Amino acid sequence: MLHWARADEETLTTITPFVAVGLVLALALVRPLNALALGDDGARALGAHVDRTRILGLAAMTLLCGAATSAVGPLVFVGLAVPHIARMIAGADQRWTLPLSLLLAPALLLFADVLGRIAVRPDELDAGVVTAVVGAPVFIALVRYRRTVPA
Predict the structure, then answer these.
(1) At what angle do helices 9-28 and 50-72 cross, to 10 degrees?
(2) Is 48 exposed, middle or buried (0-12, 13-18, 19+ CB in 10 A)?
(3) For residues 140 and 22, what is the distance between their CA atoms, to the nearest angstrom?
(4) How far is Cα 66 from Cα 80, in angstroms, rounded to an integer?
(5) Cβ neighbourhood burial of 137 (10 Å; 0-12, 13-18, 19+)
(6) Signal sequence span per UniProt (predicted)?
(7) Residues sharing a CB contact under 8 Å with residue 36, sequence separation 6 or more, in sequence order
(8) Which among 107, 151, 95, 97 is positioned nearest to 131, based on CA atoms?
């Protein structure tokens, strides 16, 4: 379950190096990821190292997702939907999609937390429950929208 109370100063100190390395790595991979969106042959033609980009991208994703999960718990819907929403807003260019995802994810979690606090007053719903309940239909709609709109 998603618990904001678990994110104390000790947790922040523990995950900071992983977040820093993950962010630097992700931001350094923006151009190779854009090239990789053209396919392996297109990326190689543009000078990208396909295998290295995939491995480093996986490493960045693992560092960032692991740090977030260890700090507050599983963020399933956020990890699935936010990149799709960011791509719908900013297009396929990773130079815009990645930073927009970095801004949308905490905004979505804040919205879920506030909604969980006011939806069943005086009790409180966990933000993870709110993102799952609200997120499932939204994600299904996103997938359907992506099928009907050409890339």
Answers:
(1) 160
(2) buried
(3) 29
(4) 15
(5) exposed
(6) none
(7) 43, 48, 50, 53, 54
(8) 107
Task: Measure the CA–CA gap between 120 and 7, rounded to whole angstroms.
Answer: 24
Q: Which segments of the chain does DSSP mark as H helices, in order? A: 9-28, 30-36, 40-45, 50-72, 76-90, 94-119, 127-148
- Joined together, the tokens standing for residue 104 give 């949308």
43 touches 36 (CB < 8 A): yes
Token pair for residue 14?
Answer: 């523990």
| Owner of token pair 């499932």 | 136
Place of tokens 């000078």: 47
- For the residues 68-78, what does the mean pLDDT come to? 79
Token pair recorded at residue 122: 């005086």
Helix (H, G, I), strand (E, B) or coil at 38: coil
Q: What is the pLDDT of residue 3?
A: 55
Mean pLDDT of the chain: 85
- Which helix (H) or strand (E) is 1 found in, with range? none
Q: What does pTM read for this prediction?
A: 0.68
Do residues 49 and 32 make contact, with C-beta atoms less than 8 angstroms apart?
yes
